[in-house]
Amino acid sequence: MPVSPTYPGVYIEEIASGVRTIVGVSTSDTAFVDYFSRGPMNEATRITSFDDFERKFGGLHRDSEASYAIQQFYLNGGQVGWVVRVAGGAPAAARTILRGGSPEQNALTVSAANEGLWGERIQVAVDYLTREPDQFNLVAREIGIVRGQPQVLGSEVHRNLSMDQTRSNWAAGVINDRSQLIRVEDAGLGQRPLPRGANANVTSIQAINDLNNTVFAALTGGSDGSLPGADELTDGLAALDRIAPAIFSILCLPRAANLEDAAMSQVVAAATAYAEAKRAFYIVDTPASVEREDQMREWMADHDGIRHRNAAVYFPRLTIPDALNEFRLRSVGPSGTMAGVYARIDSSRGVWKAPAGTEADLRGARLLTRLNDLENGALNPLGVNVLRTFPVVGNVSWGARTLEGADIEASEWKYIPIRRLALFIEESLSQGLQWVVFEPNDEPLWAQIRLNVGAFMQNLFQKGAFQGRSPREAYFVRCDAETTTQNDRDLGIVNILVGFAPLKPAEFVIIKIQQMAGQVQV
Description:
Blueprint: E1 30-34, E2 44-47, H1 50-57, H2 65-75, E3 81-85, E4 95-100, E5 105-112, E6 122-127, E7 136-146, E8 149-161, H3 171-178, E9 182-186, E10 217-218, H4 230-236, E11 250-252, H5 261-277, E12 281-284, H6 293-302, E13 311-315, E14 318-322, E15 328-332, H7 335-348, E16 366-367, H8 373-379, E17 385-390, E18 394-397, H9 416-432, H10 443-462, H11 471-474, E19 475-478, H12 486-490, E20 497-500
Helix pairs in contact: 2-7, 4-5
């Protein structure tokens, strides 16, 4: 704050530098929307590993295309995922009712934490070995089959609970806040639920691993619902709106490829529009019936409406060992695998490096169809990224074009790394310039904007994101009286003009060889 001198001497005043660092956003957080065996319904959940996915969503499921895509995502270098579980029909959570009082009445309704048949593996028990006479303990356990034998997969113990809603240890409040397995609803009886069996002092906590113990009651009535259709998949995208301030940068909808043609087109159109609105990139999967190069050309001709600068398609599909089917090969779309490759290349080289070439190897997957150079050459001009197999290198991504990358389109967004770099810059500046709103719209503000945006762009230039030998050749940042006229200022508008010279991938490497006729070099 300004100094008010009142006595002779030296006064110190700290002055703000005007530097507000703009931090680059994540470029590889990937969103998956699909059917899963468990997990929150129509809610985006952050995961950081496949183990995390198994804990929260049940892992691989034969009817869940995205579960295999997520496995491939992490196998190929993915780091952060956002998972949205959707289903058709009427999915329901398994439940049971615990009775209490005299005469007996409904005391607590215990439900699985979320919908699905998985909830029928949960059992609950009550005992009275507590600190106070009006309290109770509630134990929940999940039973599963491991190597052909039933085992306890997990358990929870909630001790010294009360049915008094005014107390801090009220059963519904404690369990619903802490439990990963169950939710409870208090019927308002005011009396604790009764233990199963005649002996209220049976220690249900010690009986957790005793699978034959009768103090436990099983939850019933769970339902997975039906496989999601186009409406459920597109409606599930809305759950991603609620992850703010976090963002996702890549979108995968593997189930869309399993739908009827009209339904698939509906999902692809909605997903592409949503990706554009969120400054994200959508990787499209093709149906399993498209196996040959000529079929892919026909499919692209029939689906010309899917072309968009924020989307890409890869061919052919992949095969991976299916752990749920004795490791027999299963056909999967390449979107999850390629999202992992994007994340790996982004981390090691930067978003401006094309996710293709010998570095972009496909881990844990084989190609459903092997293509030669001529077939590759027929698809590449159409904007189809081909997956190839080469000696020593193995299976790699051998294309880096967006769905606007067809030669006839002549689009400035022909290449994936250029489009994704632009989206990265847009989102980073959008978030990093929030402080500008409601600031006085004059030269001091414009100077601060030029300083901060220029520092961000200079950092990218030093990392090799742009072409050019100097910053002047690589990028520019303009914000002054020319970009923001007096009329703009009267309307409350400040215009910032940012340009950059992108690095285009060396898609075609031409080597010219000339024979020497034995001339003597002087």
